[in-house]
Amino acid sequence: MNIDYRQVGDYKIPNIKLPEEENVTLGRYGMMRMKFLQQNRSGMYMLLITKGILMRTLKKTEDEANEMLERLTEQMMKAQGVTEQLKESNQMLWVQMMNNIKHSAEEIVLKELIYG
Description:
Order of helices and strands: EEHHHHH
Number of strands: 2
Shape: rod-shaped
Number of domains: 1
Low-confidence stretches: none
Strand content: 5-15%
Structural class: mainly alpha
């Protein structure tokens, strides 16, 4: 392995360049995961940066989180009997149950994928 150096004052500093990463727009879960890695898993965070796969990994985590959230919401709605009929007959109860389901599903996603 051949490493080039540049002279800065009395020191020789290696010319190191990080690999190029694709430009990805992250949503809520990708940003949350990045912040968690920066604050709590700095070694993994730096490894992903130096390998040039941080953004791709965060995008994959975000996609998985969104899919898991949707799947869990559907499963919980089915298990608790939350239907369109309930929405038409008792809208307030439907809203309460949906809010509970969404919060529960999000807690699972955060625990399993974002902060795990």
